[in-house]
Amino acid sequence: MEDNENKVIYIGVSDHLPKLPKYFSELDAGIEVDFKKYKLNISNILSIDLDTELLDKRIIELEKMISNDGQIVTKYTLKTNILVDLKIKCMTSNDLSMVRIVHEKFIKSIMISLPDKEKDIDTKKLFKQNRLKLETYVEDIYCELYNNKMNCQIAIFINCNFVNINN
Question: How far is CA 76 from CA 21, 82, 111, 151, in A?
């Protein structure tokens, strides 16, 4: 994917999302990279390579309820931490105009509401049997350079499926 206005190439954006997902969450996050901490003076961003890694997951058991804003809270919530790994290819603005790669990482947490049961099997039991499959999809990346800082907005879709369940 390429940002035509800024000519930044975005690497890692998914070309598809799951069809009819049942259990999912979306993460919208912003990160600011100050190139001064790398002792760099940047003239432009050439590319952004984004990768994600799921670090851990756990089930949180709650009482069923309806929140003040009308959202239904189910018995089980899946919490996971996601490592977001950015590789920024940029051009310095000094006399040599060198291409440099800056590496930034950060961690975000997400929660996904899950049903009490799937095909009459308790969700907590399925979790303990490693029958929950999580997948991440990078929906969008957008970055701007200003005053030797980069503001980057990302959107990530996290899908949860139950796997290998036979009735």
Answer: 17, 19, 10, 35
* DSSP-derived 3-state class of residue 142: strand
The string of pLDDT tens digits covering residues 67-112 is 788 877 778 999 999 999 999 999 988 767 789 999 999 999 999 9
For residue range 33-73, what is the model confidence (pLDDT) as tens digits? Answer: 999 998 889 999 999 999 999 999 999 988 877 878 887 77
Q: Report how far apart, in Å, the C-alpha atoms of 13 and of each of 73, 83, 126, 156, 159 are.
A: 31, 16, 30, 9, 15
Burial class (CB in 10 A: 0-12, 13-18, 19+), 81: middle
Neighbours of 86 (CB within 10 A): 21
Region of residue 20 (phi > 0: left; psi between -120 and 50: alpha; otherwise: beta): left
Kindly report the pTM of this predicted structure.
0.85
What φ, ψ does residue 86 adopt, rounded to 5°?
A: -110, 130
Q: How many residues does the chain have?
A: 167
Specify the amino acid at residue 136: T
